[in-house]
Amino acid sequence: MTQPFYITTPIYYVNDVPHIGHAYTTIAADVLARFRRLHGDDVFFLTGLDEHGQKVQQAAAKANISPQAHCDRLTPQFKNLWGKLMMSHDGFIRTTDPQHQTVVQGFLQTLYDKDLIYRAEYTGWYCTFDERFWTEKDVEGGLCPDCKRPVEQLSESNYFFRMSQYQDRLKAHINDHPEFIRPVSRRNEILGFLEKPLEDLSISRPKSRLTWGIELPFDADYVTYVWFDALTNYVSALDYLPPSPSRDRYWPATVHLVGKDILTTHAVYWSTMLMALELPLPQTIFAHGWWTVGGEKMSKSRGNVVNPNSVVDEFGVDAFRYFLLREVPFGQDGDYSQEALIGRNNSDLANGLGNLLSRTVTLIQRFANSTIPAPVRSTEDELDRELQTEAQTLLQTTLPHHLSPERIEFNRALESIWGLVQLGNQYIDKTAPWVLAKDPAKQERLHTVLYNAAETLRILCLANAAFMPSTAQNMNEQLGLSLDFSRPLLSQKITWGDLAIGTTVQKGQALFPRIDVTTVKNEKNVISQEVNPAKQKSSKSSNEETSKNSPETPTEEQISIEDFMKVQLKVGKVLEAERVPKSNKLLKLQVDLGSERRQIVAGIGKKYEPDHLVGQTIVVVANLKPANLMGVESQGMVLAAGDKEVGGIITIKEDILPGTHVK
Ligand code: MSP
Fold first, then answer.
1. What is the tens place of the pLDDT at every residue in 328-356?
2. Whole-angstrom Cα distance, residue 321 to residue 307?
3. Residue 74 in contact with ligand 1 by CB distance below 6 A
4. What letter would DSSP give residue 126?
5. What residue's CA is closest to ligand 1, atom 29?
6. Residue 161: beta bridge partners?
7. Within this chain, do residues 458 and 571 fall inside the same structural domain, yes or no?
């Protein structure tokens, strides 16, 4: 009997088009779903849309259409993107599905009948954006503690779920199940949150304020709170989306993937709802980190919301999938930049994996008549043994370890795969098949080397199949492997040496063409369009979605002297400089800033050799938030001139002490 593996993403609000944040969680879920299917698990992967509530009602009103029409219009934007990103979800739920609404009403009625929902008058501070009440102690300076927007005092009669009753049980569950909330830091946050008394949860909204929701079965004047509706999707979907009713089969979920922003609603609201409904709790809720762009939160008014569609059109789906999961540890925040994506593409993908495949296929074509040659099996060669051990360990131990639901270390898994890519390339460099080919006495060795290189690529193809499905297929074809990825290929022990001798290899398209920064079409790949295409050009709302400077009429924004003074520029002296491994652009500098020494990563490696910089007096932005560039921390920025390419760095000829201000 195969093992069930039920994985979910949050259901996304349809108040706007999808961006990289949404793509991130869904890609992560897709990789785990594919990985478990390759291991033979019976996977159910669910994603979908959260269509009710104030945000959606407001977005529809702005577009001057009904909420349902608005949802129907936005739904294809998500579905098409998931197609483009090669998502393999088994179910796509919409909270306007009638079957879902029936389950929500059933849950509400059950809790009401058990007296776990009661009606009460409540006065509190309401945040319209977050659609929730806050207590006096939560609100600071009249602002919502979550989104920092103004809150208003509201007094109204509502229905409450007796969430407070479950506080101790929830704490005990978290303490008894270390894998329940992941990563550990987030688990501690929730335990900390549960140190304060847990309040009952308002689960209704009067229709006088909000009509776009599921009606309470016991009071037609109210709709239910959007989170009660939304969280229920994880169970309701099982009643009607898979081929047969499968709540028994898949519930409890193996893993709910969520962003850290919605961990409390999942770990506290959802868990206590399930306890009250006498349903088992999910095995793991994993909260991942947050992507910023240029160190800032994505928002339309900043014009920095990255559009996954255009990133994929420009750089390819697998480069995007790889970048998101390789660049930042899954539980941590990260900063998105096109430069970093191009860096990864050119170094890890094109120079690493792409090069290994291309040179191996070319060598087999030239020296083995385009067919996988027979190796000498019992080799004592140390290089061969190292390659074999590394490859087997990767599939048998390393990947399952890093990709287990309580760990989810995509970056480490990819790091290990790329360890083998590097070893494969070194193996070819060291064994030099082109030299062996010249010596008739070394033909056996030549064949063994070519076989081993191809076998390494077979293993890499399997290891990458969940992460980069289209690349794996391309490798499969070029190596003539005939792998069927819909089968549980990893469920049996993968043995080194299973690559069939005599299969024909065929050179195909380069896996990852190198990207030349100077020819990149869309510099930022940001979303600039309005939700409602008809209103795109004329929309004049004061809402944050439309900034004063519309994308069609860019004006140079002027800043005040105060704004300029916020940037702390200081004189620095370069003490050391070296190249960042695998990057032809980035240099790592150690800079003396007078009172301190800073490490700064600068994209000036094409213009300067490291030695040229040592001893130079430069200008540094000293109060820039640290950033991570290709795995190296940068604690500032070097001023340089140039548009796309660096023309020159700003240097000072006079003898000025490091740390001196530049104004
Ligand atoms: N509708 C609720 C979720 C209900 S689940 C029962 C919601 N939707 S959302 O559209 O705002 O999407 C939230 C999720 O999208 C986040 O939890 C996260 O998974 C993902 N992300 C949205 N923006 C993100 C970033 N900037 N960075 C990383 N992930 C982000 O909340």
1. 999 999 999 999 999 999 999 999 999 99
2. 14
3. no
4. E
5. 21
6. 117, 201
7. no
